[in-house]
Write a structure and sequence with these properties.
The complex is a heterodimer of chains A (372) and B (95). Chain A has 372 residues and is α+β, with helices and mostly antiparallel strands. Chain A has 16 helices and seven strands. Chain B contains one helix and five strands. Chain B is elongated and about 45 Å long. The chains are: A alpha+beta (372), B alpha+beta (95).
Chain lengths: 372, 95
């Protein structure tokens, strides 16, 4: 695991394979940090540089920088902008979920991709942010395409029985895809890592400031009170009946529940657009002296931006993305890898691909299998 | 979090395009933006082209990525990678 990091970053996975079981594993996530581009510049420089670079989740990145600048310049987060931020992040989350479920999972399952709704969202995104009627019409059509027009009774409450009926009976391309994936994903990538909830954002942001200041490596290997959390759709929806019942049935998070949680979140995101509901906003912040930190929920989990200002210039700036938690050296990905069994190397590679996709890193991964 | 890379279409077919950035070639899936003529700048997110970029936008992102790569190599004079921002000197006194 010594090859240079590409600018786009990479997750490196290593398996020590004994021929029929994995005997050891390593997980390492490496992504470029912006701090050296920002050191010594005025804080506003971050708003020009960060969205330009980190465009995969560019809306969430932009919101994090704007909130941070609002803190540094005005001492508080500008509440008037909160609904606009929430709207941007809702559309971006829907976009990312459509990407996984419409392109990536069909690719891995050998099914035809379904790029239509995503293509329309990309083309109409700016219009949708301003024009609720246009967003509603698109969301309604997309919801029917993905879930059928049976008004999907599991939407509001995430009712497990209704979801099961939909999964087994619905004729939509998404339901067919999920029916094919279920036996491959159930039980794969099991992890007992603690699950991070929206409600944890406030206590996290209070605790994390001294860690960022004192540990220059924190962004590579984050923890909270010594624990490495799973971030993302499963974690933040863990109390919804559908996810909660699957977790209770199976006794642990796994790749299937991760995908179901993403499907649930996509359905609810589209439903909220159809209903014209305001976007929910999960963002917490802390300002202390010359430092400020913002944490917010985005498609893959919690995004954290931290700035330290020194005489009106950026003294330090770091970003911790959800990939650092899910692909932490002792995080949920590692736990899943260590449970892999099998004597066929290609099947092992396929199982790893499924686990990775379910945890959804924001970078490509590279797998090395060492024959122990 | 991660990066989108601007790439120039050098060969195009209905579903994919061979794209290039500073000597590196990559075949991108074009299903999200449709076929694009040779000479178009696109934003590559992993193996997909996600957006068509105006040339000026592509140049700005390209220079920012170059700046990041230089920073990762340990270089310290990075202002030139953000020429359009007219930065004050990073080592000068605060304004």
């Amino acid at each position: 695991m010594t090859t240079p990091i590409p600018a786009e970053g990479r997750v490196d996975l290593r398996l020590d394979w004994g021929g029929d079981a994995v005997l050891g594993a390593e997980v390492r996530s490496r992504r470029p940090q912006p701090q050296r581009l920002l050191l010594g510049q005025p804080p506003a420089h971050a708003l020009a540089v960060i969205p330009r670079l980190y465009s995969l989740c560019g809306d969430a990145q932009t919101v994090a920088v704007e909130a941070l600048l609002s803190l540094v310049e005005g001492g508080t987060v500008d509440a008037d902008r909160a609904s606009g931020w929430a709207e941007r992040i809702r559309l971006e989350n829907i976009r990312e979920h459509l990407w996984r479920l419409g392109l990536d999972w069909p690719g891995i399952a050998g099914e035809a991709p379904q790029p239509g709704p995503l293509r329309e969202l990309l083309a109409g995104r700016e219009r949708f942010a301003q024009d609720r009627d246009a967003a509603r019409a698109w969301a309604l059509q997309t919801s029917i395409t993905l879930f059928g027009d049976a008004a999907v009774s599991w939407l509001d409450h995430g009712d497990p029985q209704a979801f099961d009926r939909w999964l087994h009976d619905a004729p939509t391309v998404l339901a067919v895809l999920l029916r094919g994936l279920q036996p491959r994903l159930a039980g794969l990538g099991r992890s007992q890592a603690p699950l991070f909830r929206d409600a944890d954002l406030e206590p996290l942001v209070r605790d994390v400031l001294p860690r960022l200041r004192d540990d220059p490596e924190f962004h590579w290997r984050p923890d909270w009170r010594g624990r490495v959390f799973e971030m993302g759709p499963l974690a933040r929806n863990r109390e919804r009946p559908l996810v909660a019942s699957l977790l209770a049935q199976r006794g642990a998070a796994d790749s299937w529940i991760r995908v179901v949680a993403r499907v649930l979140e996509l359905a609810q995101g589209l439903h909220s657009l159809v209903e014209g509901a305001a976007a929910a906003h999960a963002l917490a912040w802390q300002l202390r002296g010359d430092e400020a930190v913002v944490v917010l929920e985005m498609a893959r989990g919690v995004l954290l931006h931290w700035i330290q200002v020194d005489s009106g210039r950026i003294g330090d700036y770091r970003i911790v993305a959800p990939t650092e938690w899910n692909f932490h050296p002792r995080g949920p990905m590692l736990e899943g890898l260590l449970q892999l069994r099998g004597s066929d190397e290609q099947r092992l590679r396929d199982a790893v691909a499924l686990q990775v996709m379910a945890l959804d890193p924001c970078v490509q991964y590279q797998l090395e299998i060492v024959h122990a | 979090m991660c990066l989108g890379i601007p790439m120039l279409v050098v060969e195009s077919d209905e579903f994919t395009a061979l794209c290039e950035r500073r000597g590196e070639q990559r075949r991108l899936n074009m299903m999200l933006i449709g076929p694009q003529p040779v000479g178009t700048w696109v934003l590559a997110i992993m193996d997909h082209a996600r957006e068509v970029l105006a040339p000026e936008q592509a140049k700005q992102i390209d220079e920012a990525v170059l700046g990041l790569e230089a920073a990762m190599r340990g270089e310290t004079d990075l202002d030139g990678f953000f020429a359009d921002l007219q930065l004050p000197s990073a080592i000068g006194p605060p304004r």
